[in-house]
Amino acid sequence: MNRQEFYKEKYRQLKPDWRDSLAIYVSIIDGLVSADTRVLDVGCGHVDFMKSVYEKSEFIYGLDTSKKTFERNKVIKNR
Q1: How far is residue 4 CA from its own chain's centroid?
Q2: DSSP annotation string for 37-76
Q3: Which tens digits make up the pLDDT trace of 19-68?
Q4: Which whole-number Å values give the CA distances from 26 to 40, 41, 63, in the listed order?
Q5: Is residue 44 domain-shared with residue 12, that is, in the same domain?
Q6: Where in the sequence is the domain holding 52, given as residue range(s)?
Q7: CA distance 44 to 68
């Protein structure tokens, strides 16, 4: 666990209902995506924090300037 995660966990212990900005973002997008939704993720990167959302639709498209990024990104199939 890195330093940032350590302090997030400590804060969650003090405020159990608290969610970090990434969790809030994923929740918002999750509410908008369904099986027929088309998503264009510009600058999609290599991280997989959107995996649970992006698995809901086959119409997820990603753009990024790095070919290596796509080699590491296992979530977005349409590149």
Answers
A1: 18
A2: --EEEET--S--TTHHHHTT-S-EEEE-S-HHHHHH--S-
A3: 999 999 999 999 999 999 999 999 999 888 999 999 999 999 999 999 88
A4: 15, 13, 19
A5: no
A6: 34-79
A7: 12
Tokens found for residue 49:
């924090």
Instruction: Please give the tally of structural domains in the chain.
Output: 2
Q: Are residues 39 and 23 in the same domain?
A: no
Which residues does 65 contact at the CB level (< 8 Å), separation at least 6? 43
Whether this prediction's pTM lies above 0.70 is answered by yes
> In whole angstroms, what separates CA 6 from the centre of its chain?
20
Q: What is the 3-state secondary structure (H, E, C) of 17-37?
A: CCCCHHHHHHHHHHHHCCCCC
10 and 45 belong to one structural domain: no
Instruction: Say yes or no: 39 and 71 in one domain.
Output: yes
Which amino acid would we find at residue 64? D
